[in-house]
Amino acid sequence: MTETFLAPLAPKMTPTSAPFWAALGEGRVVLQQCDGCEAWVFYPRPRCPHCLSAALSWKPVSGRATLTTWTHCPRPTAPPFTGLAPQTLAVVTLEEEVRMSTFLLETAGRTLSLGMALAPRFVPTEDGTATLLAFAPA
Amino acid sequence: MGTQRKGAIVGYAEWPTVRRYNGPRRFMLEQWMDLAAEALADAGLALKDVDGLVCGTLREANMFVPATVVEYLGQPVKFAEFVDLGGATGTGMLWRAAAAIELGLCDVVLCALPGLPIPSNPDPRDRPPPEARWLGSTSNAWGSPQAEFEVPFGNVAQNAGYAMIAAHYEARFGSCERARAQITAQQRASAALNPLASFYEKPVSLDEVLASPMIAEPLRLLEIVMPCAGGAAVVLASPEKAKRSPHRPVQITGYGESLTIKTPTFAEDLAVTPVAAAAATAFARAGTTPAAMDLLALYDCYTITVLLTLEDAGFCPKGAGAAFLAERNLAFDGDFPVNTHGGQLGVGQPGLAGGLLQPIEAARQLMGRAGPRQVRDVNRALVTGTGGVMSEQVALILEGA
Questions:
Q1: In this structure, is residue A10 part of a structural domain?
Q2: ∠ CA B353-B354-B360 to the nearest 5 degrees?
Q3: Tell me: the pLDDT tens digits for A78-115?
Q4: Total number of domains constituting chain A
Q5: Is residue B35 within 8 Å of residue B74, measured between CB atoms?
Q6: A77 touches chain B (CB under 8 A)
Q7: Into how many domains does chain B fold?
Q8: pLDDT tens-digit map of B378-388
Q9: Is any Cβ of chain A less than 8 angstroms from the Cβ of B155?
C-alpha cells in the first residue's frame, strides 16, 4: 500500500464520533479527554469508560503512536480488499495510551517490531466520504 | 462459593462433523427436536422429565428463542436461558444449567446447539446479505464500534485478530511456531481415531502443518478451524433424576466466566486472555487445582488459543507455553491428554455446536465411553470455551461421580 492508496471500505460514522472524522478530513487527529479523571478516550463515547463522567472534551493530539501488534495477510481479510496490495493490519498505541485498529503503510524494506515508532497517515476512502487514520514507520 | 455438586451431565448427542454435508437440510428448530430426542434417549430420560431449557441463537427467531423452542418441542419448562457467547456458548449453557439445578429451580435441563445447514429459501428477500459471509463475529451494524473503527481497516472476522494476538505474544516471548504446529498434529492423531471427526483417519505431521499456507502471519491454514456442519446436545440432571441414566454422572463442580472485550484491539494485555479469571474462579469453586486434572478439553478455534489457555489457566507461567508443550504429548495416549476427540482442529467446527464438543468429549471420557481413545483413570477434567476473538471465556471443572 502506498500513500495514494484509497481505502475500499468507509466507516459507518455516528454523531458521537463526528469530530474525530471531521478532524481526520483536515489532516488532524483529535481525541476525547475526560474533564473529570483526565483519561483519554477512544473510540468516542458520550461518557468516560473509566469514571462515567459525561464531561468529555475533544483535544488535538500529535497522532504519533507505537506498534503494539501487526499481521501481514497474504490473503485478503475481506473481499473488498481483493486485488489491492497485501494488507498489514495493526493495533497501535497512541502517545495518549489509547489503542486503535489500523493498517500500516510504507513498510517495504522495514522490519516491524514491538514498540516501533509510528507516524500518522491520512487515507481517504474510495467513496470520498471519510478519511481513515493509518500509520507508517516514523 | 463451592458447588454442592448437584448438577451433572447424564447424557448427550453429537452428530458427525462434516466438511461437505449432503444429508437432508433441516430448520434449526427441527434439528433441536432431533437433538433433544437423541440426547434424552442417551440419558434414559423422557421429554416429560425436562423442566429446563438453554438455547443459543436460532435462525428462525431473532427474539423469544426459548419460548419458540419450548412450543416446538411441546414441553413447558420452569427455567429458560438464551446464551450468546459465541464459541463459549456451549460451556456457558452447561454451567447455567448446573447452577439452575443446584438452586432447585429445575431437575432436568436440555441444552442443544444445532449446526446443520438449513433449507435454502427460494425467496431472495429472506437470504442473509453477502457481507455476512466475511464479517464473521464482527458487527457491521450502524452504531457498532466495529462498523466504524475495525471494518474499514479490514480487521473483520477472526483470523486477523487471533493472528495479531499470536504476533504480539511472539514479539514478547519468542516464536511458538513449532509448539502451535504440535498442537494441531497431536490433536489430529486423536481425531484420526474419532469416527465423528471430519479428519477421521486423516492424521497430519508437524511438518505438514508448518508447510500449510500462511493465512495471517504467524497463523497457517492448519492452525485454523474448518467451518463444518454438525450439531450437539447435552442433558443435565439433579442427583435424583441422574439415577435413571445408564451413565456415570459427570458433575459440574466448578465454573467461571469472564468477558473483557469484543475486539482484542482493546484488550488490556493482548497476551493475557479472559480464561485467566474464568479458570481461577472455576478451580476455586471446585476446590481443586490444575495439577489435579486428568484430562483437558480446551477450546481450540486456533492453535494459539490452546497455548494461551494452558498458560492463563495455570498449567505453566506466561511465556512458557512453547517450552511446556515441547516436553508433552497431547494425544489421547500421550502423557498430557488434551482434546482427545481431536479438538475442533481435528473434528471441525460445526458452528456454535463446536463449543459443546469439548465438554461432550470430557463427559465421554469421564463416563468411560471413549472407546479406542479412552484415557485410563479419568476422574477430573478442565473444559474451556472461547467466544469471539478472546472476548469471553468459560471454564468448567467436570468430575465423575
A1: no
A2: 85
A3: 999 998 878 999 999 999 999 999 999 999 999 999 99
A4: 1
A5: no
A6: yes
A7: 1
A8: 999 999 999 99
A9: yes
